[in-house]
Amino acid sequence: MEFTHFNDAGRAYMVEVGDKDDSKRTAVAKGRIEMGAETVEMIKEGMVKKGDVLSVSQIAGIMGAKKTSDLIPMCHNIPLTGVDISFNLKEDGLEIRAEVKTVGKTGVEMEALTAVSITALTVYDMCKSVDKAMVIEEIALLKKTGGKSGDFIRGEGDEKDS
Amino acid sequence: MEFTHFNDAGRAYMVEVGDKDDSKRTAVAKGRIEMGAETVEMIKEGMVKKGDVLSVSQIAGIMGAKKTSDLIPMCHNIPLTGVDISFNLKEDGLEIRAEVKTVGKTGVEMEALTAVSITALTVYDMCKSVDKAMVIEEIALLKKTGGKSGDFIRGEGDEKDS
Amino acid sequence: MEFTHFNDAGRAYMVEVGDKDDSKRTAVAKGRIEMGAETVEMIKEGMVKKGDVLSVSQIAGIMGAKKTSDLIPMCHNIPLTGVDISFNLKEDGLEIRAEVKTVGKTGVEMEALTAVSITALTVYDMCKSVDKAMVIEEIALLKKTGGKSGDFIRGEGDEKDS
Amino acid sequence: MEFTHFNDAGRAYMVEVGDKDDSKRTAVAKGRIEMGAETVEMIKEGMVKKGDVLSVSQIAGIMGAKKTSDLIPMCHNIPLTGVDISFNLKEDGLEIRAEVKTVGKTGVEMEALTAVSITALTVYDMCKSVDKAMVIEEIALLKKTGGKSGDFIRGEGDEKDS
Amino acid sequence: MEFTHFNDAGRAYMVEVGDKDDSKRTAVAKGRIEMGAETVEMIKEGMVKKGDVLSVSQIAGIMGAKKTSDLIPMCHNIPLTGVDISFNLKEDGLEIRAEVKTVGKTGVEMEALTAVSITALTVYDMCKSVDKAMVIEEIALLKKTGGKSGDFIRGEGDEKDS
Amino acid sequence: MEFTHFNDAGRAYMVEVGDKDDSKRTAVAKGRIEMGAETVEMIKEGMVKKGDVLSVSQIAGIMGAKKTSDLIPMCHNIPLTGVDISFNLKEDGLEIRAEVKTVGKTGVEMEALTAVSITALTVYDMCKSVDKAMVIEEIALLKKTGGKSGDFIRGEGDEKDS
């Protein structure tokens, strides 16, 4: 195995994918923000209001997915066919899950991971006036399908400290 | 305490900071990527080459810090006076630290956290051909100084599972 | 009928279009800026100079069309195959028309409407030193072709106050 | 009176404002979307759900305000100190109002008008599956304060067809 | 003398300028495109039309100046107070000159050089259907004033092959 | 021959390419920065360090290639399949070469030329603390293949002053 993002001269480059076929590709990523129980409660209360923390964060995550190739230097710019972000509010934090799809020549792992990261950062921003000690945890790829390199499904052994 | 990013109608807004004085502000954030020992080894080997994983990631992180207000919906767009990203390569992963400074009316916590996040995502992108099971962990604010709301220094009690 | 941009949890998402076929699609939108007769006259005089108001505005509109998916949260990022903006200078204002084309899985209504809007905003910016009371009016979709949802042609009944 | 955005050679340029003092500046703009009563009703029903049309649109408007200088060619890039967008849902449409503030050398009229425009375009995008005949109307500057050119308050005579 | 854009660890960083005073700063850069006499003639003829090559290029250059910190990794993002681009059409090519100003903590050399570069690239794009052999030449800093590092005026000895 | 970027009204537009077939396309561009021998030496010494001038510049060039349609007004936004930038350090300067590929309806000349330009500008930025008199020279298209307009290979006669 070797890093694919370096050319013969040893320099980073955007690897050529022009010979790959277009295929349907999906990637699912997750992440979590640990926060105080009081912060969780405030988010819950806000969900019955017009502009809640999670709405803002989820929109930021979707927009972030579309900016992935602008943020990650060696990432290909590709049209995404769909992005969906969902939440699971727990007692001590918030779980974030992003699913990204495309029909193209490269996978969308980075788009899913970026969507989760920007969503989490926005939750932090929206709640930081009450809780600066929040921690973003376990941003990881759960699943990747499509493309000739084979599917990836995160196994139990991959889970580290949850 | 309450969330400051919502207006009287209950909708999110970019809170007005025009009455605040310009002051020097600093924020330091950290994060970590857990990865296999083999991946760590490959990164180390690459560091003696021309375009190593960490160079690409650190540049992405600095550019990401400048894009923070474009990514986080309620974040103010402010001129940054400095951004510095450093690494600590461990046996089972990589620690990332970002320090951001400004002279302005709002803090730069989000810029420091965004710098760490984009750096970590880029490390993932550069290494994913050999290790898709990497996990981004513990993105957190370490320190914040400047502004009238007082300094924040992450205490021992704030550290959760490291 | 229902809004398509919300998922099962009731949250906004970028609707999946990966199963749609690529097809040629066109959208035409229009808009108008009401302005004083003197402002119209000044624009006309400028048209014989090197850098007239309409040139700047039309370029901004074309560039704006390319930024649509960056501006409209649930809009898909797609490669446009053509953008054309034209003007009709009347006694009391300026009519703007934008035509946008693509070969893809989603329509380009938003791109055409965004092109008109950014063009109009730039006209306002270029003329505001002489006329701050200008009003942007009647930004509307005129036509949409391609895709399986059927064509849309704006009918007489749709025209409201022109 | 003359257009200020052209240099001696008759070409557009970003006018030099370096000699102006920093001062507090405010701009308020408005706009309206005409839509069918059924569409209004659907928006209202959505407001009790998690991710309503207006939340998405208002966030897009705030982010759009921050992109103004990237969209309008001769606009200065300036740090905004606050952006607030509000809605008034009527029987036959939606009124949008945006207030933008800065402390700087140029006014924020374009930022307020851009915020209204992007908000309106996003409402159109979110509702277009049920109503393609919506029309964006009366985007106009209501008020502008700060700076040496004097305040602007939209008079009755300025109102055209509302 | 040493490169200032590297930190103690030998990695690139955005150098901290928070202790510098705000001061008025100007930078002037130039560049040239060599092209066939026929291409020059076609540009001249277009200048009497509505949307000439130079108008499009000059607008692109001004917008490019505002994107400098988004393009050049270690560049500070700063509000520009003015940008002006001028042309000198010669028998065998086009000379471009850009002047950029700010009031701030860092110079605007990169903004002026970027403005010239993007202007030149756009001229190439607009003319490439008739002349692909055009060459962009002599992009250089002519003058830099303001800041404590002293002014820079390009001397005769600096001119290389013009 | 005529300029293709103008519509019937004489205004610039993004030319419609929807009827063209998707095909593999390549473009190669080059450029050069003249600099003092001492600056060359400093770059060489930096190449053995972690974050050298060329790494930063090459990453900026790759990211710049992806931004081409955002910078050049009439350029189509297209997904790139690969970008590779290489260097040749000479006694009195640095040669830059960029190769860009796509599978699409338009060529990638502008992407290759933009990659070279942004790379060169970043080299200037990284070295300007020691050498402000550097000159960017000879940015030119070397080769273009794919598409129905035929291939372009830069001939000897096209080389002007190297």
- Number-wise, the strands of chain A total 5
Q: How would you classify the helix and strand content of chain A by structural class? A: alpha+beta
Number of separate helices of chain A: 4
Task: Indicate the CATH architecture of chain A.
Answer: 2-Layer Sandwich
Oligomer: homohexamer
Distance between the termini of chain A: 28 Å
**Spatial strand arrangement across the major sheet of chain A:** 2-3-1-4-5
Helix-strand topology string of chain A: EHHHEEHEE
CATH class of chain A: Alpha Beta
* Average of pLDDT of chain A: 91
Shape of chain A: elongated
Largest sheet of chain A: 5 strands, antiparallel
Spans of at least 5 consecutive residues with low confidence of chain A: none
Provide the β-strand percentage band of chain A: 25-35%
Rounded to an integer in angstroms, the radius of gyration calculated over CA atoms of chain A is: 17 Å
Helix content, binned percent of chain A: 25-40%
Total number of distinct structural domains of chain A: 1
| CATH H-level superfamily title of chain A | Molybdopterin cofactor biosynthesis C (MoaC) domain
Family (chains A, B, C, D, E, F): Belongs to the MoaC family.
Subunit structure (chains A, B, C, D, E, F): Homohexamer; trimer of dimers.
EC number (chains A, B, C, D, E, F): 4.6.1.17
Function (chains A, B, C, D, E, F): Catalyzes the conversion of (8S)-3',8-cyclo-7,8-dihydroguanosine 5'-triphosphate to cyclic pyranopterin monophosphate (cPMP).
